[in-house]
């Protein structure tokens, strides 16, 4: 008798049907090419890259998605979107510091984390998809539920309908080029340059395409200054992995820098992406050389210090979990 696989039912929309984002039959998202960040052949090139980015707003963007086979058949990627993380670093915010240590720069990263209300009850403890208990192939290998939406430590999570998350994303993107402009710049109609960072941009681009997200407009289309960079494809991170001769996942390359929280979710991930990029770009030669040579032997003294992170944020987010119990720290970062 053929074994019957159990597929979890679709979660109720709970009155959210009108809140779903309608997918445009012809999405209008501009076809901005996703590029690799510039290749750094030697540490001496880093000061020039840092100089080129001295007034550029850096944005990290990450989606999480429910990836169960049953849902794949009936829901699009944007409908299965469970989390959105956005991190913004503006060099003009960091000018208040005189020393510009990496910790001071990281404190100026603004993080937003949104959990889609439709999927707010889907956590590692509640997800009953069959692949978490038994997998019919590959020797019965069990696949863990990866995302921990309530383990955020860098920003208080917000539970919102998909439409509200889409509108917030569009609003943040629209305001980036005019952020912190001087009176003179406003008078001359100037706009700030923006770089959006991804970690494997395929899902993010697909969801934004389905949502019809528009990237910021510039008064002069010829001077449109927004770029999309995929950090996973950065040649230097690829080279570091080959030098270390490791088979670890690409994302684990960021762990030695000390920027990864224990809970994997969109809010923690966007901070890690942006923090790692800033750390490497502004790193000293000894740090850069050691990381490129073999990041698996990265000295602890080189790791980023995150003792400035407010522990209350993690506690508040943990209480949002439908399965939260007093004293049950499921993914404590501290």
Structure description:
With 334 residues, the protein is of the alpha/beta class. It contains eleven helices and seven strands. The protein has helices at residues 46-52, 69-74, 91-94, 102-106, 162-175, 183-187, 202-211, 235-244, 266-281, 285-294, 311-320, and strands spanning 34-35, 57-65, 81-89, 109-116, 157-160, 194-198, 226-230. The longest helix has 16 residues, at 266-281. Mean pLDDT is 81; it is low at 1-8, 14-18, 25-30 and 326-334.
| Mean pLDDT value | 81
Into which percentage range does the β-strand content fall?
5-15%
What is the element string, with H for helices and E for strands? Answer: EHEHEHHEEHHEHEHHHH
Intertermini distance:
50 Å
* Proportion in helices: 25-40%
Q: Summarize the biggest pleated sheet.
A: 7 strands, mixed
Rg (C-alpha, Å): 21 Å
Shape category: globular
Topology readout:
Elements: E1 34-35, H1 46-52, E2 57-65, H2 69-74, E3 81-89, H3 91-94, H4 102-106, E4 109-116, E5 157-160, H5 162-175, H6 183-187, E6 194-198, H7 202-211, E7 226-230, H8 235-244, H9 266-281, H10 285-294, H11 311-320
Helix pairs in contact: 8-10
């Amino acid at each position: 008798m053929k074994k019957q696989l159990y597929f979890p039912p679709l979660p109720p929309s709970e009155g959210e049907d009108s809140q779903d984002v309608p997918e445009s039959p012809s999405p209008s998202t501009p076809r901005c090419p996703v590029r690799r960040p510039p290749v750094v052949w030697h540490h001496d090139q880093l000061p020039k890259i840092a100089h080129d980015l001295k007034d550029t707003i850096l944005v990290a963007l990450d989606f999480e998605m429910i990836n169960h086979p049953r849902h794949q058949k009936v829901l699009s990627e944007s409908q299965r979107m469970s989390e959105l993380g956005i991190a913004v670093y503006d060099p003009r915010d960091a000018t208040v510091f005189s020393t510009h240590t990496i910790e001071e720069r990281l404190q100026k990263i603004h993080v937003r984390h949104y959990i889609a209300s439709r999927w707010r009850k889907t956590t590692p403890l509640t997800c009953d998809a069959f692949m978490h208990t038994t997998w019919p192939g590959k020797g019965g290998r069990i696949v863990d539920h990866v995302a921990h939406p309530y383990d955020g430590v860098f920003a208080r999570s917000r539970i919102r309908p998909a439409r509200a998350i889409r509108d917030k994303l569009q609003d943040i993107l629209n305001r980036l080029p005019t952020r912190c402009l001087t009176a003179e710049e406003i008078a001359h109609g100037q706009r700030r340059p923006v770089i959006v960072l991804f970690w494997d941009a395929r899902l993010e681009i697909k969801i934004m395409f389905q949502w019809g997200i528009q990237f910021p407009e510039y008064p002069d289309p010829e001077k449109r200054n927004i770029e999309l960079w995929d950090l996973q494809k950065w040649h230097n991170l690829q080279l570091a992995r080959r030098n270390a001769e490791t088979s670890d996942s690409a994302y684990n390359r960021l762990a030695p820098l000390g920027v990864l929280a224990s809970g994997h979710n969109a809010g923690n991930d966007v901070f890690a992406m942006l923090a790692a990029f800033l750390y490497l770009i502004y790193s000293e030669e000894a740090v850069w050389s050691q990381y490129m040579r073999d990041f698996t032997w990265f000295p602890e003294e080189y790791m980023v210090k995150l003792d400035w992170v407010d522990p209350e944020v993690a506690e508040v987010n943990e209480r949002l979990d439908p399965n939260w119990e007093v004293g049950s720290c499921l993914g404590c970062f501290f």
